[in-house]
Queue: 2 jobs
Job 1
Amino acid sequence: MAESSRIPPAVNQVFIRVASQVCDRAKMDYEEWMVNSQELAYHLQQRWRELTEQGLSTDDAQAKALQMFGDPHTVAKSLRKPWLERLLHYKRFRSERFFFFILAYFLYTWVVICDTHWNELLQGNPATPFQILLPFDQGFFINGLGSMLIGLLAASCVVLAQWRPLFKNQQINRLLLIRYLPLFLTGFALFDVLIRSPITAFQTLREVMSNYSPFTALTIPFLILHVLGIGVGILGATCLLFEIMQQGWNNLRIHVILAGVLISSWIAYAPAASPPPAIFKNPPAIVTTNLDFNATESTVIGKQVRAWMNRKQWDSIESAPRLVRQSQNGFNITQFVQFSSGDTFDLVYWFEGGNWKFHDAYWHSLKGVNIELNLSLIIREPRKAQGFMMMRNPALNETQKDIVRMIFNSKPFHP
Amino acid sequence: MNDDNTTRIEQMLREAGPVLKEADQPVEVPPHVLARLRAVREMNFPTRRELTAKQLGPLLLSVLAKGELDGFDIISRLAKSNIQIKGGEAVAYGSLSELVSANLVLVDLEERGGQMRKLYRLTDDGRARLKTVEAPELNTLASAVWAAG
């Protein structure tokens, strides 16, 4: 076959256009587009030459060559790489990779703010989301809106590290190696998204699930937000990691810096990642007594006391006890029962270790304080009620706050 | 298979067609048709086979194990060996691209006649992969493809 036989420009133009269309539809990267387009055009040209040598006319050979070539859609589909590979590897998607990382960090920031707010609330600290967002301190950059700035800076540091200075003076080039140093910040951001985010999400989730019944109106959006935050976060961090890899993954400096950041972040965050449990002081006014009710019923899952309480002849419906809270650990059930004693004192009983325990100091100790209470919330979600109560009653002194914390703390008070 | 052969076989099949359709009927097949059918059966003419892009991968590896080729050359040899590619012959470039992505095949760029050409050759990984494919027919077919050039 004569490779040099001349192809009419009109035919050649069609072939080049088809090859370009295929490469466009295959969404190829800049470099491979050129080479593949030439290869496909060459294929069509050679096929045309072969067919004309067999005696076909110019037009027939063109039509036959295109027919043998195949449908451009099908060919493009066979040449197209999976979207994830394209997103992570292709130069043409470089800006998308940065955008995706910033988007992921934005979402991560809100997940962290949400987690921090709920953790504070569950610990009984009267912190509103605005109080977490606004103060300009260290926490602002770790748990607040400042996280977004860190995300933006992390992406900028990668751009800086990708810059290749080509000054004639080698001293300046060597001096500019300092541009790799800000990658510490990138490593910190990657650590945040990849490691800290799932850890804090898991801790908050565990806390929320232990305080609220599962699959309520609160827990489902909570789960969706966190799954989305972690999933997008991992993808965004991967985008940035691939961006670093493509521009010089063989560079030892990048390895050392990223490894150093990951290790130091882990050491720095490991204690902070699990917030210490709130320590509640025992209020001095509390009186506790063990009561022994032999009339409790034994069931397969433990002692069932509510039925007995309901069977008792109480003076009135108002004075009948209400089950405030029930928790179960294996076969041990702890039940909290609350009723009005008639002398304006609310008593709280709980069944623990085979004994009924009670104390009556709660409301008495808070007497005289204008307290806004939401009893139904206290009964359904005691720890959430604790946080709200703290927020709505800022006039409480420290002792009163301790009492409130203890009342609503999900962990039973051990006298 | 050349065009003459194809025409001849098509004609024989056309003759045999109506009788085959009525084979369930208690009609005696005329002896001359039976003779034609026997002739077709015994002819051992090459059959066209259609491969998908996925099926093409091992064959391409096997062909490239015999030497370096460019894309058009590979596809031409396949066509000459009566191997059709589902979706059009250019789909083979997709298969080649997948092999390159998997580091089984390497691309060398060569300038010829003012045009850049891609030459495909097998890598060590490709050779190792080929050894894991146990299909005796594959080597026979690859040899036929290689010889068709």
Job 2
Amino acid sequence: MDEINESIKGRLRILAFIATAILFILFSRLWMLQGVLAEEYRRQADNNRIREVAIDAPRGLILDREGEPLVKNRLAVVVTLEPERGEDKQLKRRLSRVLKMSVAEIDEQIASTRVDPIKPRVIQRDVDERAVAFIKEHSGDFSGVALKIEAIREYPHKTLASHVVGYLGELSEQEREDSEFARYDLGDMVGKTGVERTYDNLLAGSKGTEFIEVNATAEPLRVIDRKTPHPGNDLVLTIDLRTQAIAEKALADGIERTKKKKYRNASAGAVVVMTPQGEVLALASYPTYDPTVFVGGVSQKDWTALTREGSDYPLNNRAVMSAYPPASTFKVVTAAAGFQNDVKTSGTTVVCTGLWTGMGTKWAKRCWDWSGHGPRNIIGALEVSCDSFFYDIGYRLYKLPGERLQDQSLQMGLGSKTGIDLPSEIEGRVPTAKWKKEWNRNNPENQAWFPGDTVNLAIGQGDILTTPLQIASLYAGIAADGTIYRPHVVKSVVGLDGREIREIEPEITGEFGLTQTELGIIKEGLRRVSATGTAKEAFAGLDFKVSGKTGTAEVFGKDDFALFAAYAPSDAPEYVVVTVIEEGGSGSGTAAPIVREILEAILSDEPAD
Amino acid sequence: MSHREFFRNVDLTLIAASLGLVAMSLVALYSIAAGADGGGVTKQLIWIGVGLAAMAFMAFTDYTRVRHLTLIIYFVNIAFLLAIVLSGDTALGAQRWIMIGPFRFQPSEFTKLFVIMTMASFLAERKGQTLSWRDVGLVLAYVSPSIALILVQPDLGTALVVCAAVAGMLLAAGADYKQLGVLAFLASAAGWIVIRFHLLKEYQLSRLSVFMDPDRDPLGSGYNLKQSIIAIGSGGIFGRGWLSGTQSRLDFLPPSVRHTDFIFAVIGEELGLIGGVVVLVLFFFLVSRALRVAQLSRNYYGLLMGAGIVSMWIFQVLVNVGMTIGIMPITGIPLPFVSYGGSSMLMNFMAVGMLLSVYARRWR
């Protein structure tokens, strides 16, 4: 037998050393992973197996002031498609037939970047029953297609108050940047306009989460934990359904009527009905739209029809988003500025000859009534809307240092947002010397502020622009003895348990700064307008008294815009009503009858307490 | 040698260590199969039985007599490998199987043992003298056909195991360090050529390199690795509990590999550091007892066989466990006694049997 060489046994010891070293290295690494980093890997393992699935919260309802729902929820079926099935042409053709949409439209939905890339794509919302039944029956042909139930909006009163309630749309990527929408996921339905937008955070509620254990192929195995969704709160509007319906009908009928007469271009307008304390009872904008087209996502065709250039832009809420020259309805501001600056407003009598020459014959200006109103004091001037009288006040104000008339306009709420709880409200414009210079910066010969600018402003013409709501707010201020309240369309927010979680209280945003005597003079002028003045035909035969002011705005290149602002009853005002009809002609002929119709309907039929 | 004499000379520690590893394997396999048919465990139990029988047979057989069969073993091995290359079932893109009855044989597993046996015989003739350069050349010539045929399958892992066993035996046989250095250089050069001239399949290369950056291919080769590391790491000290590993039970560790190449990850996840250390300690006992057998061998043949078997095992442990914890490339090398697979189980028990035979006949 061989004698084993001792040096060979040494070699075996080297082998033993190598083996031990290897085992030790493996142990060290194990210790690193399992002893030191275990928590991190435990977290990763949980992330692997636990998927968080959001559960939508039912959105709150929108009710009128009496609790009648304007916006409800209803359950609808949504068809979704797994993104990895998006290349299957046959499947898409089948879907296209069943859902009655083109393959191109389906592709558009699949390509939508509005959804998390790994989540199923929404192909169609609110799918009709027959399509649902067909897909269920032929589920083998529709692998990757899922039917999901979701709550969508329903409008029991159709188009009624659509500009106030607004509509929903998918959250866009751009909106997601906004912190207001940070808690949403891409593709969620959020309020886009109206109170749906302003009160979105209260209506939306908060989503629940389901923690689902899945395996490696993302197949759900069981629900580990569930955070229930918290439903949204209901909104109770200040809007009165009946008043809203009256206002919308009066506006639509009035415009149709006007169109048939001399003013063929009359096609748009707005009505605001509110209390002197700012509670909006009706807010109508014409033309209107059907919010139902937005349910389940608006189609490209509908969207184009609603927004294309040359349309009447029915989505615009003209009461807060359009500004018009206030014309003679502005004369109450001129009167107030006259009182404030002590330009002998109450003691002054101006003799109107139809041609006002206060700035010299070279700059003579016409009163609307070319035949002249004769001698008029402020009350008489308001009654017949005498331009000469207000030219005169305007010119006196011009001669004082500063911009007295503009200052008074701003103090009475013009040129700034009223602060109503609706989105996209605009400020309008009170023209000042500084504004004019900036506006005409490329037009040097028109940069100077002339006396005629102030004189024009005094009758609400020139460059001044106001929204119908601003005019309503102004006349509400008169009705409320000089106090301006913030207008609002929401009365209260009600939680799921029926408890009010927020009540919107009247909020004072400004004061006219007039004495009651001065206000009384203005009120008397306004009272006479409907009795013996410019609107006496429109308001003849009513069993209550109406105070108001006509306005006929000249707009370059267009027919006159018709305005009427009123409050009633004159002695204890309950309602303020303002109507503006674009290209509707005269305030007395077109706008005043609409206001009368509304006031008559709401005041005469009012049940006695 | 009488039976009584034999039984007095059985190395029980060696058997206990291998049975301990088998037990760990069954624990993990049961957990994987629980809820399913459990066929994996039953099949593995059959193989263990076959393995133990083979072990006993090898132990009773006088290994010095096996030495006379060296030439036959050598050519049988080559024949098997050729058969596989010419007509083998393919699994995961590699031809590795031949069917014998209902069982799939993986001849390359036995190649490891056959190469060790024939090499031991060859090197034993040098009787511990310093090897000449000619001897080294002969060794290379001797093993090249087997390695080449394994690489053609392609089964890179087994080829590497064979190389490691040969290297360990050369070390034990007394190759001087200059020779080992030259061999190491040649191996590196070969590796360089293989990579430089794209002799490896794309997937092999990416599996080899992915452990350096598992995020590079997180859904491909990196996926198994990432999930394996998460599984082991999440096990912590005490493990997620038997039958409670989410990584392995919910298929994050892919079902195709979790019972074979990645079974250590299942143990690490469910039994934690404690389970992992038990496995390593069992290997420590196995390897140290095997080395003791080699040291006590009454001849060079037994000693070199012991050295070869130890080198084979320790290399497989290093690469397999190292792979599951992200410090070694991904190559399809099973963990001895633990990974699911009949051929591997049978071969490893045969190796234990050989060691037992050497040990029992250590007295001259």
